[in-house]
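wait is this the right file?? whatever heres the structure
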């Protein structure tokens, strides 16, 4: 097993099994790091928790819902406005966040009363919103607050509202992926089948695992519309609460992000007999293959081919322009979950980039397995890296670009590696034919940005030395005061700061007369 030992993690021996170097002619059992396990104490993981996976990833994209967290204020604050889940409801779901704001007294006496009052206050504040999801955070789960009972009381008192309860406290699993699982199953168990939809087409689908990041869903919706397909519900980007209660009437579940939403597809297939079809909206060839699969299922292949021909003709010349300038550039593909394997092969095949590393923070073994199988030999595969390992990997691999989330992306910029936001995008959407050209454009802009090039200019050795900071003379002793004044003069000889130091010293520190050494320095400066 070609395990990769990080120097910074030698003191944590367990981390050895969470990173491997992919060697030529290796089968996946020899190149697969351990994954989806509890975080090793001391590694300072940057993972999200199960609550984050339920609320932030799956729940929040629903557009006509009050998303209420029952716990301390920090939980909803940390999962608020960090992804661009846009909607046609004036982006209500990302403009506002709601919480009971539990404090120490609620841990002792309980917070059910606080929860009920917050629910009513929220509905009063937004009378046009009649749907709510309550997310149980760690604090309320630990003390056993019964959120279902409170929700039932409210719905009895206010018959026009409907509330969904999600029991996914942060400790419910090793990472945010556990939260994906919980909310998937609870939605089917408690809400699906309660609404009968209006069917307007012979071809009806649920679009699952799509979160409308910067308009991804709108791109795909356009393709479906041109094929004559009705999208009954989208789970959950720009999705309507009541539409998602009618998922049982679809003829086909089309699944995009398998890591976050395969669970609901599998349950819907088991309970309602709705088949599941996995697709891939990133890249020209994967997008074309996906449209052909959907067309074949419904017997409308000609409509799919017409879209593929039209879109390819329109966007291929622009993509070719970027590919000519990106070919051979090295990329670390560190996006998180399923984008790892959605992108691993296509960024190489269609953009000409060399994938030198792949990683996942919350993905399962299957995600890493598919990602490693699709990237080049020599790539470094890492499960749940911490910040120090991230820096060490970048320093060693020297990539031209990193595709990752905002937190590791900001770290990358500090060591002069450009990044594009793989989670919330820089200038999306990235799906579909036009979206893939946008993706290529963002990569090109990141690598060739003149601002980025300036980061390599070292100004520390300029003729005029840089400011070394302010010296607080009150903290100086008799012995080193003169030396400090001289240094101040050297630092600021072109700004006149030396004279001000002298005047200040004469007024505030008369007990320290100017010495011959200082006077001599003054003469040298002129």
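ok assuming it is, sequence goes like this
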């Amino acid at each position: 097993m070609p395990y990769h030992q990080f120097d910074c993690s030698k003191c944590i021996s367990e981390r050895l099994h969470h990173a491997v170097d992919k060697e030529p002619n290796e089968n996946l059992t020899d190149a697969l790091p351990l994954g989806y396990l509890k975080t090793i104490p001391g590694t300072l993981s940057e993972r999200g928790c199960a609550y984050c996976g339920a609320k932030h990833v799956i729940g929040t994209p629903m557009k006509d819902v009050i998303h209420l967290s029952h716990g301390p204020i920090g939980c909803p604050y940390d999962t608020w406005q960090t992804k661009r889940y846009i909607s046609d409801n004036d982006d209500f779901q990302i403009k506002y966040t709601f919480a009971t704001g539990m404090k120490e007294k609620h841990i002792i006496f309980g917070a059910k009363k606080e929860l009920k009052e917050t629910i009513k206050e929220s509905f009063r504040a937004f009378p046009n919103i009649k749907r709510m999801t309550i997310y149980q955070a760690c604090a309320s789960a630990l003390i056993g607050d019964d959120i279902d009972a409170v929700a039932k009381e409210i719905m009895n008192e206010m018959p026009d509202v409907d509330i969904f309860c999600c029991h996914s406290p942060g400790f419910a699993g090793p990472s945010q992926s556990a939260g994906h699982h919980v909310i998937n199953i609870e939605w089917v168990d408690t809400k699906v089948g309660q609404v009968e939809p209006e069917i307007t087409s012979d071809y009806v689908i649920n679009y699952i695992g799509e979160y409308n990041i910067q308009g991804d869903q709108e791109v795909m919706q356009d393709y479906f519309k041109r094929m004559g397909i009705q999208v009954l519900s989208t789970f959950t980007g720009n999705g309507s609460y009541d539409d998602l209660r009618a998922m049982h009437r679809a003829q086909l579940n089309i699944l995009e992000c398998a890591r976050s939403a395969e669970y609901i597809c599998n349950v819907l297939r088991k309970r309602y007999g709705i088949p599941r079809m996995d697709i891939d909206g990133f890249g020209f060839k994967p997008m074309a293959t996906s449209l052909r699969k959907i067309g074949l299922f419904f017997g409308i292949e000609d409509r799919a081919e017409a879209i593929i021909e039209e879109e390819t003709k329109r966007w291929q010349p622009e993509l070719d322009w970027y590919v000519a300038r990106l070919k051979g550039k090295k990329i670390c593909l560190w996006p998180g979950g399923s984008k790892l394997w959605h992108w691993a092969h296509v960024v190489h095949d269609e953009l000409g980039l060399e994938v030198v590393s792949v990683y996942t923070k919350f993905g399962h073994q299957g995600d890493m397995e598919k990602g490693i199988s699709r990237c080049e030999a020599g790539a470094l595969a890492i499960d749940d890296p911490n910040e120090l390992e991230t820096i060490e990997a970048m320093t060693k691999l020297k990539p031209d670009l990193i595709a990752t989330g905002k937190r590791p992306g900001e770290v990358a910029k500090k060591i002069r590696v450009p990044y594009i936001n793989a989670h919330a995008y820089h200038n999306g959407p990235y799906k579909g034919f036009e979206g893939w050209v946008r993706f290529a454009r963002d990569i090109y802009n990141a690598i060739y940005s003149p601002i980025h090039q300036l980061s390599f200019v070292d100004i520390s050795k300029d003729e005029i030395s840089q400011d070394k900071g302010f010296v607080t003379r009150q903290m100086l002793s008799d012995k080193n005061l003169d030396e400090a004044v001289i240094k101040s003069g050297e630092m600021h000889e072109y700004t006149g700061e030396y004279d001000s130091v002298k005047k200040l010293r004469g007024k505030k520190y008369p007990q320290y007369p100017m010495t011959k050494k200082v006077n001599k320095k003054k003469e040298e400066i002129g």
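The two ends are 69 Å apart (CA to CA). so i think its the right one actually
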